[in-house]
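Input record, target 12 of the design panel.
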């Protein structure tokens, strides 16, 4: 999985090279920075194991458990056993941790009430078309610097998906890409407008429309935060099947399906 925009902060907090480092790590400021780094990692890469968190942030097992226990107690994170296909080696499946809806909500949904009121007024004045036009314009602003995919190859398609993830991360969506079977998934681990999108699905629809336009192929939305999933996940086929006469739509839909035997861990089951 490629991660875009992960903040590598707080790595020194778990090291105990000398007495001075131990004192610094014990201060409230350093503790808060480390907690923020754990939250950021849960946001961008969750579900994730405690071992992986420790390795990424340079934290001791005890340090990881302290932060995870605090987040679970506050309702900001939850733990679940890894699925069999995720287990490496023998033994009891490791726990995987991820943010809850409450945890994501505390990251900030600025001006939700104001935005919702403005959208409702826009609909009252201009109807559904005005909402759809606004949603398309908003996404167009995010992807303004991206050119449409010129030629379909697995490498070029994956690179374009990475480019899309990068601009959405810059817009606050904490987006990543990962290879899944014969396709690649664009995963948006945070949505700064998810509460508004619950009432106005046109915002999500405009994103999907932009993905299809830039990639030049049928892409499939598998999950959305607005619907209660832990991430907005969009499947992009890396191999575009030749269109047969009179069956273009069917060919596109076949190309967009995830490969058999793959599991999407960003869907509702992860919650």
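The sequence produced for target 12 reads:
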């Amino acid at each position: 999985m490629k991660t875009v925009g992960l903040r590598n902060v707080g790595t020194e907090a778990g090291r105990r090279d000398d007495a001075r480092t131990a004192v610094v790590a014990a201060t409230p400021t350093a503790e808060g920075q480390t907690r923020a780094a754990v939250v950021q990692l849960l946001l961008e890469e969750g579900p994730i194991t405690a071992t992986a968190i420790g390795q990424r942030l340079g934290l001791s097992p005890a340090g990881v458990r302290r932060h995870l226990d605090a987040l679970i107690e506050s309702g900001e994170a939850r733990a679940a056993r890894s699925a069999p296909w995720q287990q490496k080696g023998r033994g009891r499946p490791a726990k995987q941790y991820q943010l809850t809806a409450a945890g994501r909500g505390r990251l900030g949904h600025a001006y939700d009430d104001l935005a919702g009121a403005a959208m409702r007024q826009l609909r009252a004045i201009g109807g559904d078309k005005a909402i759809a036009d606004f949603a398309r314009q908003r996404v167009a602003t995010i992807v303004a610097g991206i050119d449409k995919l010129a030629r379909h190859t697995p490498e070029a398609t994956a690179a374009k998906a990475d480019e899309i993830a990068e601009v959405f991360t810059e817009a606050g969506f904490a987006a990543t890409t990962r290879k899944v079977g014969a396709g690649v998934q664009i995963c948006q681990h945070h949505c700064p407008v998810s509460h508004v999108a619950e009432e106005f699905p046109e915002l999500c629809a405009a994103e999907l429309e932009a993905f299809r336009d830039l990639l030049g192929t049928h892409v499939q939305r598998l999950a959305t935060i607005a619907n209660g999933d832990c991430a907005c996940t969009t499947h992009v086929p890396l191999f575009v099947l030749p269109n047969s006469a009179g069956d273009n739509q069917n060919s596109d839909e076949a190309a967009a399906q995830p490969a058999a035997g793959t599991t999407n861990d960003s869907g509702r089951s992860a919650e």
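The chain has two domains: 30-83+92-106, 109-237.
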